[in-house]
Amino acid sequence: MVRLILASQSPARTKLLAEAGIRHSILVSDVDEDAVQASYGVTHPHDTALLLARAKAEAVAALPEAEGALVLGCDSVFEFDGEAHGKPYTAEIARERMLRMSGNTGVLHTGHWLVDCRDTHPDGDGEGTGTGATLGTVASAEVSFLEMDPAEIDAYIATGEPLHCAGSFTIDGLGGAFIRKVDGDPHTVVGLSVSTLRSLLAAANVRITDLWRG
Hints:
Layout: E1 4-6, H1 11-19, E2 25-26, H2 33-40, H3 45-61, E3 70-80, E4 83-85, H4 91-101, E5 105-116, E6 134-145, H5 150-158, E7 179-183, H6 186-190, H7 194-203
Parallel strand pairs: 1-2, 1-3
Antiparallel strand pairs: 3-4, 3-5, 5-6, 6-7
Helix pairs in contact: 4-5
């Protein structure tokens, strides 16, 4: 049976996989995102998303628990006015960002990186099933926001939801009320594109249907 490990602590990502019927387990990496970015210098938000997804996937793939599994790392970065917006963490930063985003449009980049940790060598039962693949890609979607008044923004921030989300918003939670439209895969905005995962799995000679529950 093919095993998939999600190298992310995001509840939204694991919920998305579960609702798509995809069997998986979770193993969180201890990657220092700031240190990874600092080591590569300033990069475009698109590249940052892929860089961090790769760092998370490879960190988990190096653990003994990942042996024999496929490891998927993901990371999302919101690009607005040419700036990279990760998680705001504080109410002040979230409010400043959301006031600027009100009535405007940005791009959510989600990096995906897959590492095949299955055995590539023949054993007594035949050939190894692993491909040794380590590859990734970025799925991007344009997000357009409705006008938001300051009272709405303050009420949203008070819930705590936007403080730990790339770009200070969600589409699958309370923040969905402020999104006018999405051009691209909506799953990308949640933080994991299932169709992108399907393509990466295919490169490792795995059908996504092999991961469906039941």
